Amino acid sequence: MEKKLDLSKSVYDLVTEYPEVADIMKELGFSEITNKVMLNSVGKIMTIPKGAKMKGVSMIDIVGAFMKAGFTLTGEMPNVSGDDTQGASMPPSGVAAGNSASTVAATATAVKAESVETSANTVASKTQEYSENKTGDSVQDTVQDSERVEQLKSFLKRLGTGEELGAVRDDFVSQFAHVEASEIMKAEQGLMREGTPLAEVQQLCDLHSALFHGSTIHEQMDAEHAKVEAVLEAQEKSQSVVTLVETVGHPLNRLTEENKALDALIEATKVKVASKTATVDDVNEVRQVSIHYAKKGDLLYPHLKVAYDISGPSLVMWTVDGDIRDGFGRLARAESIDDAWYEEFDGLLTRAQEMIYKEQNILFPICAENFSTEEWYQIYKDTEQYEEIFGVERVAWTEAESALAAKAAPTNGDSNTIALIGGSLTLEQLDAMLNTMPMEITFVDHVDINRYFNDGEKVFKRPTTAIGRDVFSCHPPKVEPIVRGIIESFRNGERDNVAVWLEKVGRPFYVNYMAVRDQNNNYLGTLELVQDMQFAKEHFARIK
Question: Are 72 and 5 in contact (CB under 8 A)?
Answer without folding.
Answer: yes
